Every structure is written in C-alpha cells, then in structure tokens.
Amino acid sequence: MNNCTKIKVGVLGATGTVGQRFIQLLENHQHFKVAVLGASANSKDKIYKDAVHWLLATPIPSDIANMKVHACDDIEAFNDCLIIFSALDASVATNLEKTFRIKGKAVFSNAKSHRYDSDVPIVVSSVNSDHIRCVQDQKKMYQGGFIVTNPNCSTTGVVVALKPIVATFGIKEVIVFTMQSVSGAGYPGVPSLDILGNVIPYIGEEEEKIEIETKKILGELSSSDGEQPSSSLKFNDHPMFVSAHTNRVPVSEGHTICLSIKLGREATVEEVSNVLKGYHKLTPPENCKLLISEPPLHVIDYPQTPNRPQPKLDLERGRGLTVTVGRIRGGSYQGGGSFDIRLTLLVHNTVLGAAGSSIQNAETCFKFGYIQ
Amino acid sequence: MNNCTKIKVGVLGATGTVGQRFIQLLENHQHFKVAVLGASANSKDKIYKDAVHWLLATPIPSDIANMKVHACDDIEAFNDCLIIFSALDASVATNLEKTFRIKGKAVFSNAKSHRYDSDVPIVVSSVNSDHIRCVQDQKKMYQGGFIVTNPNCSTTGVVVALKPIVATFGIKEVIVFTMQSVSGAGYPGVPSLDILGNVIPYIGEEEEKIEIETKKILGELSSSDGEQPSSSLKFNDHPMFVSAHTNRVPVSEGHTICLSIKLGREATVEEVSNVLKGYHKLTPPENCKLLISEPPLHVIDYPQTPNRPQPKLDLERGRGLTVTVGRIRGGSYQGGGSFDIRLTLLVHNTVLGAAGSSIQNAETCFKFGYIQ
Amino acid sequence: MNNCTKIKVGVLGATGTVGQRFIQLLENHQHFKVAVLGASANSKDKIYKDAVHWLLATPIPSDIANMKVHACDDIEAFNDCLIIFSALDASVATNLEKTFRIKGKAVFSNAKSHRYDSDVPIVVSSVNSDHIRCVQDQKKMYQGGFIVTNPNCSTTGVVVALKPIVATFGIKEVIVFTMQSVSGAGYPGVPSLDILGNVIPYIGEEEEKIEIETKKILGELSSSDGEQPSSSLKFNDHPMFVSAHTNRVPVSEGHTICLSIKLGREATVEEVSNVLKGYHKLTPPENCKLLISEPPLHVIDYPQTPNRPQPKLDLERGRGLTVTVGRIRGGSYQGGGSFDIRLTLLVHNTVLGAAGSSIQNAETCFKFGYIQ
Amino acid sequence: MNNCTKIKVGVLGATGTVGQRFIQLLENHQHFKVAVLGASANSKDKIYKDAVHWLLATPIPSDIANMKVHACDDIEAFNDCLIIFSALDASVATNLEKTFRIKGKAVFSNAKSHRYDSDVPIVVSSVNSDHIRCVQDQKKMYQGGFIVTNPNCSTTGVVVALKPIVATFGIKEVIVFTMQSVSGAGYPGVPSLDILGNVIPYIGEEEEKIEIETKKILGELSSSDGEQPSSSLKFNDHPMFVSAHTNRVPVSEGHTICLSIKLGREATVEEVSNVLKGYHKLTPPENCKLLISEPPLHVIDYPQTPNRPQPKLDLERGRGLTVTVGRIRGGSYQGGGSFDIRLTLLVHNTVLGAAGSSIQNAETCFKFGYIQ
C-alpha cells in the first residue's frame, strides 16, 4: 500500500506526550498515514516542530515536522480522515470525541471519557479484541461513526498478564500494586521537585480506574435481551474483586506492577508459570495480527531470572508492545492466606499502555472491515 | 550523668552504613558512650575517620573521628563495654554475637543471625518491648549475657503501623508491598547502573524476613510448660497470614510500604483511622520512654493529605523514629474482596529501621535493670 | 526581644519555593516576625497551609499555617511591616517593589528586577556588606524606603569563594561552570520528564546574570563626583572578565560550581589554599555578625578530601549559610594556559543563594540603623 | 562475507560494561566475528550468559550467550583470532596486551596502559586515523603485532568537536568541563548511595588523561630523524593548552561536556558554527568509511535549539557514534577574556567513547591492509 492509498488519520492532542507517541509509532505505518494534526488553540497554525516540546529520542518524522497544526475543534479540518486518534485530556475529549463520532469517524481514544459508556468498549488487542464487534451497534446509532477506547496505562499491563491466567484457571481476586513512571502524567506533568529521589504514594483516580477497567475488559460482551432498540450487545463485568495501590516513582518510562492473585480453581505455581511461559510463544490470535505494521514476537515475555522485569532492561521488548512478567511464585512463603500466586509485570506505559494499543485497535477494526 | 559514669558501649561494624548511624545517634547520648569501635580486619588499627567512607550529612562526632578501630574479633578490646551494638553482616554476626553473649555482654543486633532463635526476641520498642523480659532466661544460660535483635528495616515500619490495629481490631491477614531505598543495602550496596531511573523488583530474602518477623513480633511471649530447664518463656507467632512483595527504588533513604489488611473483626475506615490518629498522641508506654535520650513526640504520625507519606517530606519526623502513615481507606473502591483496609506507611530504614531500634532496645533493657 | 517588640515583616511570594524558605528561616528569628503573607491573586484570602504546596522537610511553622494570605498588590495590608522580603517573579517584582519602596519600606529582594539599577546594591553579607551604605541615598529619594537585592543563586556562591582570593591576590578572569539543582527553578519548575537521568545545558539568562552580578558585587562603591543631585555614591564594576557555562542536573538542592581563576598577581596553589582555609576560621566581619539570629561558624568550609564538596554531604554546613570549597589546584596539570587556579564550590541555592542572603541583608541594615 | 570467512576476534574483559558493548556492537558485523571471550579467572569455563551481569537493553546475542568464557591469560585460547579487543582494567592490560602483541595480534584497547607509549597511537577514527600508519613500526618490532588505543571516553568527545575547529582556525587553549555518566565507571562502579541526587566533583586521573590525550590525538605524526632503528615515526603533541574539570552526575549513559576555546586566529561565532554545521554533512574521510558495518550519517550533529545537547534526547544519534554539539556562542556575553568560543557537546561514552572507537580503529586497520 503506497502513501496515496493509505487511510488518512488525524491525531488529536498531537503535541502532548501520547500524541508524540502516536506520531512516532505511525511513521511508515503499513496502512495508516497521519494527515491532520490537532492541538489546543494556542498551537493553532503553528508548524508542528515549533508547537511541540518533542520528548522522544527519535527525531520528529520529517513529513510531520513541518505540517500545520489545527485546533482540535476545527472539525472540518479532519474531513478527509477516516480515523481519529485521540490523545486528548478527558476535559475536552468528552464532547470532541462524540462530535467526531457523529461525523462518522472511527475514533480510537486514550481518554477515560467514554470508557465506561455502555456502548463503548475498552480494548487491549491481545486480550479482548472480540469486544470490538460492539462497534456495529455504534455505527448504526452514529452514522457509521464509533469510539473504541483503550484502558488506563496500568490496567493495560494488568489485563495482558491476567488474560492467560483467567482463561485457564479463572480468577477470584487480584491485588494490584503499581510503581508508575512519570511519563504517565504527561508533560509538564510531575514537577521534578516532587519526584527526584522520592515516591508519591497517590495518583488521582488511578486506583478506581484499575478496579473498574480490569473487570470490564476481562468481562463478557453478550447479546442483551434485545429490548433496547439502540443496542443488541451488553458488557458484563468479570466478577473478580480488584483492589489497587498506585504509586509514582522516579522512573521516566515503564510501569512496574506487582500482583497477588486468587485463582478460580486450584493450580500449582508451575502450572501457572507454564501457562504464562507458553503464552508468549503462541501465534497471536487471528484478530490481533496487525500489530503496528509487524507483529511483536511475544505478547508476554518471561525472563526467568529472579530480579526481572526491570524498566531499564525490559522496557523495549517487542518494541514496547510486549508485557514482561517475572517472579511468579506462590501467595506466601509460609503458605496460607487468600492468594495463590504473586508475580511482577512491566508495561511500556506510553507504547502498549497508550498510543500503541489505540493503533492496534484501529488495525483490528481495519482488518474486521469496520473502517472503509 | 556525665561522660565518666556513662555506660561504655562497643559498636561492631562501625564503618558500615548502619555502624555510622549508631555513631551518629549515640553522640551526646544520656546514658551510653561509644568507647570501642570494631570493624573488619582491613580497618584494624586505622583511626576511624580514615577507615570510614562517611555517608551522613552531619560530621563524624569529634571524639570518634580519631579513635582507633579494632578488629571485631579482638574480643578483649571490648572488655570494658557492657553493651555491644552489632551492625555486622549476618555471615560474621552469627558466631561473634554468640561469643560476646557468652562473655556476659548485652548484645543489641541488627543482623538477622539470631532473630529466629527460640530464646532471642525481635523487638521494636513501641510495639513489643514486653518481649524483652525473655532476656532473663538468656542471662541465666550465658553468664549474664544476652542478645536482643531488632527486625529487618521494612518489618519495623510494618509492625509499628499494625500494632494499634491488631491491638484494637485483630488482624487476620496482611499483604505488604515495599518500595525500599538503596541505603537498606549498605555500602557500596546497590550499583548506580542498576538503579538510576529503574526499579528492581527483588531483594534477596527480604520477603521471607517480613513474613516471619512480623508474626513473631506481633505474637505472644508466654510461659512455657516449664519442663524445659533452660527456658521458661516461649514465643508464639501471631496467627495472621503475611505475604510480601519487595522492590528497590531510586530513593536514598526511607522505605515506603503499602498494606492491605484483613481485620479480625468488622470495623469502619473511620474507626481504624481514629485508632491510628489517636495512637500518635499517646504518651509512649512506660517502657519505651527512653527514646534515644529524649522521646519523639509521636510513635505514628498521620498527615491527612492524600499524597502522603513521602520520603522527601516525612522521613525526618520524630528525628527518624516516627512512622508516618497515610491514605487509610477501604479495601477496594467497589467493595468486596478479602481486605478491609489499605494504607501506606513510611519508615526511616537506617534510623528506626536499624540503629535507632537497637538503641531503643538497649535503653529499655537499661531501664528494666537488665544492664548493670 | 519578645514577639511584641520584634520588627514586623511581610513576605511577598510567600507560597513559592523561596517564599517557603523565608518562612522557614524566619521562624523564631531574634528580631523579625513574619506578620503579613502576600501571594498571587488566586491565593488571596486562603489560609496559608491551604494555599501553599509546602516542599520543605520541616513542618510549616504553627503560627504561620493558619495566617490569611493577602494579594501582594494589597499594599495597605503591609502597612505595619517595616521590612518587605520579596520572593516575587521579576515580572511582577519590578513595579511592586518600587511601590513598597516609595511607601517607605525596606525591601529585600531576590528578584532580578532592580539588581542593575544604579542606586540599588546587590549584596552578599560576608562579601560586600559595605555596599549597603548606598541605601542612604535611596532613603533620601524615596521617603525612607529602599531596595537591597541579593544576587542570583549561583553568583552568590561564586562571590563568596572569590572574595578572599580577590582581596589577597586580585583576579583578572574567572570561568564559571555550574551544575545547578532543580529547586533553583522554583515550583512546578523543571518537569521531571526533562531532568530525570538527564542534564540540560541551558538555563535562560543565567550566564548573563553571573557575568554581570559578579563584577558589580566584587566592585567598588565610591563617592561619585557629586554632580548628580540624586546620588552621591556610584558602583564601579570590578574589571575582571567573567564567563559562565550553566547547566541543570538532577539534584534537588545545592548548586555545584567549578571555577578557573586567573589571579591578579603570582601566587602558589598553597598560598591560595591557605587564604581559603584561613578565611573560614575568621570571625565574620563586624557588620555581618547577625547571621539569621546566630552566626554560622564559617563563611567558607574547606574539607580537604579530593571528592568534595558534594550536595549530599555538604549542603547543610552552617545551616545552609556556609559555602563549601574543595579541589583547590593549579590551572592545569601540565602547566601553562591562562589560569592559575581551579576549584569547586557548593552553595545552598535556596538558603544562602536566596532567602538566607535577603535575611542577612536585612539583619545588616537593622544593625546599621537603617531600619527603625 | 559470510560467517566462515569473517575475521575471528577475541574480546578481553568480555563480562564488563565495555566488554558487553563490544559484543553488542559486533553482532552481525560485516567483517568481524567474536570467536573467543576472555574474562577474569573466576568466570573461567562458565558460559557467557551465566558469567555476565548483562546491563544492556538489547538481549545477549544468541550465538554468544552459550559460548564458554576463557581466562584472559589463557593466550593459546585466542590463537585463531587476528584481532584482540581489550576492555581490560589497566592493572592487567599492561602486560596482557603486550603479550598478545608479541604473539602477532592486532590489539585494539580501551585501557590507558599503552596510550602514552611512544610507538602506540591514540586514535578516534574521524579525527586522526592517519596516526594509525605508525603501526607499521610496531609490526616490524613485534612480529606483526601492534597495539592501537582509543582515548578516555571524555577525550573522545572533545577531540571530535575540536577537530574541525583546529583544522580551520587553529586552537591555542581549551578548558574542558565534564558532567559524566556513571557507566563510565564500569560495574559495579559508582555506588548508588554516592550519586543518587548528588554530584561528585572528582574522577581519579580523568583530568590528567583529558589534558594529555587531547594534545597527542590532535598532534602530528611525523617522520623522526631516522636515527632510531626501532621507529621511523614520532608523535608531536599539539601545542594547545588543555585544562579540565571532571564531575560525575546521576546520568546512566552519555557525557555532557562544556568547552571554552581560544582560537588560533580571529573568527566570528558564525564562522565557527558554520564549520561545525558543515562538518556533519561531510562524507566521512576515505579512511573512516567502515563505521561498524555501515557509516553513521554524521560525525557531528548540531541541533540548533538552545537547550541541546541532552543525554536523554541526543545519546543515540548515529547509533551512539555521532557527537552532538550545541550552544555555540562567544567567549562571554560582555566581551573580553581569554576565550573566543563556548560550546557544549555530548558523547556516548560506552559506544563512541569506548567499544565503538576500538571497532572503528580495527575497521580502519582492516581497510588499510594492516590485518591479514
């Protein structure tokens, strides 16, 4: 597919940290081409390289550097785009994303605004891409447009690690304990005076998001009773209990997360390890093959040394699309207690945990034929 | 008490990070005077300021700087000391501490070597100073000598925060998640290449220590059946389940720890908060008044802002002898699950979590008349 | 002097990082009492503890925590204050400080706004407190009011270290290389994404400030020819050449600065070392005795170990009022080149480099009788 | 060239940080194949992946992971290698490198041991690859063997930035001020307790190395008078004065270095900028084309934004083989003083500053026909 026949996409919030990741990851994409950049009013009409405080170690793609930036609410400017990627703050995402949907656009959003809508899915490609079929209902309602969200960055890592476990053994309860990097807070984000040599044991609304989103993603999308005219599909949360402790640590990129898991049925540590070890070797399921142009080798990596995963050493596995797990062990050393399994995972919070999952979701929709 | 009548103490491992804290905290102590310094053979006969890589922001006390360093196994050198503080590595502590005990010394140790001995207590002054009475049995056995240990640094913070809760409501289970500073690993300790901008989700043996020590400290010291001639007192572990995840973060000093707690009986978040809020206002119990010359105002501080405690802001509360708690909330936002309470705590790992607790234990023994 | 008879002072910019230092350092001051707090309009009428994002490890002084905050331009609110300490941004300081001066106030400012005015001195107490006498000219012009500034934080450290050298040997040229902490940029200041594990080799206007201010402070204040009616005293810059490279490093507090110095006359490294070694032992000159209630022991410390000064170990010397120097050596190892001496210094940028010097200047004026 | 016909190389010190870089950079090299791994005696006979504490974000090359490690002094083990790359500590490098030379090997060394030998060059490929011709003299002396060193990591960056300037304008004097990352100190290297949130203003022998090596590299290699039978070529140091201040900062990788330069003849800032701007566009000179399989685009990059270069953003330019310069400006803002130009540069200390330059030197020798 040459540049002329690629699908044109717009990026909302293109100058922010997640917006920058969209632009970086979409460079040379097989099917999509960034055609319109949207940002806040004060970036309007600037060229991109002047409007952005570029924070990535790779340079701004040369075809993007000199593109003009539009205001995000200049809806007409995005007319030629079939796909809208949203890296907006929730405060403005709520209405803008709805506007683009009613204009018939396929909106893939990192914002939390519509995650909990009854007709909008929260999707991580390797976990619940079957939930994407609910966009058919949206398309009927909104003139062909729809919104697909991806979860909060921590939740993304959690659900990837839990997926093979819940599928094989079931899960009754999970305690999530995060050590999150500062890039998760955007830019300027966390002031250096707050975090250099420090830990901040609080991230606003983060714990609530993890608890809610994990259950929706790992839940079922089922036919409703058909009485509601506007929707024939319904999300049923997974009944597991989820509880989270979230913390900010002085790391630039990569969220490290510890889990304590109560399984749905008895299983040994070895059995659980084998399921996670085996998982990374699987061919990704049919519907998540299109992983940002070329698939990562593994959905999950499991380096079997006791002190892994680490952000410094494991962040770039699978170009940031792989979740690394480690330290799979029993619930306690002396036995007993509520939990069967402990493990640690690492997720690249701005790649798989943000822009990367949005793009994977667009790829899935493209493959399913939801975007024409 | 002037310098002449103070009790002479020896410090083993005086050049290490914990040894330095002993020397710093004992400067101008009301009852104790550092009289002999012990270190490894290659520091032998050097003067202290040349043997030590001093890492504290306060200067080496002037009366210590030019003292000669002895080899730790030069037992005779410590003849005049009634008290031995041990900041030794476990590898050498096991035998050396026993040797000093059999010489009739009161040994207060940070090493793990004897923590799990059936006749040695693990004591945090504000938590279980009643366990100290078991030294009477040791004194009979070892010609007046005895060993009192203090727990691993993380455990110290955990048991201080749990004490008022277990005393009021009981505790069935606790999950411990730590974010530990590099000073806990001594010097040279953690290489900077491993930890700058990174998290290491593994600390050797740390999780096991937390699980075992918490139960011993919060357990009971009771009369045994009297059949054993050598011991009339026996430690009964608290029956709670304890499970830990331990992590190293790029912080210099101060361990931040999240807890999920299942109570022994039903209680509201408010009731638990009130017990912790109230606790810090208590006069310290009779037997822990002698807190390094002058008592800290609070055993526990509870700043009621949502983003606390933080190492940067709360480490020095009570001169490092106070544990700061925060974020007391329910077990999950949506209800249900195994736990009733979540909270975060901060402990100064080299003050209260190491040398400080050893000194407080010596003060308690001094007050009880176990040291003459 | 009890609280009733202390001089009332107002603090402008009281919620910022330098404002917080003023409040911390003035707690229990012998002669001054913080009576009015000024901040920006959106803090107006809040109580201080709610308006401030307190960043210091010591708690907010209890008598300040519940004081009402006034808008800085509510000039009447400061009527009872003889002294105004200004921690304002230059953008608002320019006019506000003039307004307070014309109201007869003694204004001590950290802002750069008036540093280069021909009738305003830039003063570091131990370096050029004789320059303060120029306030007599201001007092005549402005109804008893005057402005005294202290220099940029890096310059403060530089002039303290250069003072004994220039006084003894003269200085022809100095090259200044800084490694500055993030607290110098205020709050929120430097985003953590920019500085974690990174160096930023640029600080806006900082190099220019160092070059200009060093020459003014080390210059002479002399009688002018008397033809200007408004002023009888005139600043003559020191003729030395000054050139600076300024850099931001991931350190919270404390600026580390390397100097290459060309002396005015030949001298050995030993002679220069002796002058700096000797300097710290001097009784501070008569007119800088009042160093924030009690004098620091040393204006300059010179720990003679090769790897000092370091922010972590030397920052708190003299309660942040002492400059630490180290590594005094020749201009190059092979000889030759433009410079005679290299050395490294450390200055506490928010204590001596900001609020501390302002307070010392107020103390000097108080002692000289310029404040009644 | 397939694997069978590639030149076999040995790596001494293969488990250290520089050794790891050799192995990483030589993976898939066009002409060289790592055939033998050498390390200290306690790694002997282990397989590589068990002997190494791998610190790079890319995995151990699969063909290396299971190779057996030899003791470095097991000379026979390296018999089949034409090339020896040395990442040894100077303490052992001195004799071992001589031994391999006398065995006829082409030794490319990061160690300082032989840098100052009168018949051994210090070479950075893009700067002074003409110095390599002196190996002909060594080959005559040592049965075909020779040693080529590359400079200290900081010096490497300095000479690359100075080369176009000295070639065009001449240089009389340069002041070097470094902010060096911890990877320069190897592993375990700098303890985290020493550097977290800190600056260490001293690196042993580093300043001397910069002063001496810069002058040798930028000097001339000329015919001597021919009277010495063992050598027909002689190094003449460049007569510029060099003076250095070296500092360690909490950065993992990448040395940031400020320079003050006195030119040999008058030139404007614009002229100097143009020479540096132009330089990076040049085709690398004929004799340094073989830059680790494929040349980097630029020897020097000059991003013209005021706050660059930065380790975080510019380290990976040219795969770590490009030096980034920035902030080219006059010697001072007010004019006057000894220096004409100030600038800042960044060098990847373990790629171009260590293993990368060694490999480029081997490539140059290979191209020149010195290795058969």
Automatic annotation (TrEMBL), chains A, B, C, D:
Positions of the Semialdehyde dehydrogenase NAD-binding domain: 8-135
Gene3D superfamilies noted in UniProt: Dihydrodipicolinate Reductase, domain 2 (3.30.360.10), NAD(P)-binding Rossmann-like Domain (3.40.50.720)
Catalytic residues in the record: 153 (acyl-thioester intermediate), 255 (proton acceptor)
InterPro entries linked: ASADH-related, Asp_semi-ald_DH_pep-lack, NAD(P)-bd_dom_sf, Semialdehyde_DH_NAD-bd, Semialdhyde_DH_dimer_dom
Coiled-coil ranges per UniProt: none
Cited function: Catalyzes the NADPH-dependent formation of L-aspartate 4-semialdehyde (L-ASA) by the reductive dephosphorylation of 4-phospho-L-aspartate. Mediates the second step in the biosynthesis of amino acids that derive from aspartate (the aspartate family of amino acids), including methioinine and threonine, the latter of which is a precursor to isoleucine.
Name recorded for this polypeptide: Aspartate-semialdehyde dehydrogenase
